[in-house]
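Kindly inspect this today.
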Amino acid sequence: MRRSRFSLVAGVVLVLAVGLAVNTITEHTRPSGSLATTFALGEDARVGDFQVHVHGAQAAAVLDDDGAAVETNGVWVILDLSMASTKLPNRLYGLGLRDSAGRTFTVSSRSPASLWQVAPDTWIRGEVAFEVPADALGDLTVFVWPYLRSNIESDPVGYGVTQVTVTEVENQRVSLAEPTLLPAGER
């Protein structure tokens, strides 16, 4: 009888230990079980069917849209990046910024320019804008998701992550750089 109780207790302890291990592994692979590919500024990264190269970021108080001022209650963070696809022409919809408080921001729908069409091994460089509160400036994490974020929440996929630092509003009014097709080998 003692052996069966001991076996039962040992089995319960084993199940609890396995559950704790699974929770710990899941905690380190968020969001949604996805795995991050960390890359540095100025480095090419493959994320799903895309290649991405982040050059840097700056902040501005106002965006210029063909002479019209586009203002925000916080600040604009302008991300300078190059992209290409690896298989078919496509649009990369999944860019985000996360501040040190854990708040995540997507590309602003009020931005004068939005994400652009890219093609296999044909690099395009341009800028996209995010609206963030002024207290979000500092160290920001750039997320590159290969699909719309709503798809990622339910499917584990790889995504890219890099860091940028934007500590102050460098320019009061900035025009976004138009997407430009780059010569072979340039980013």
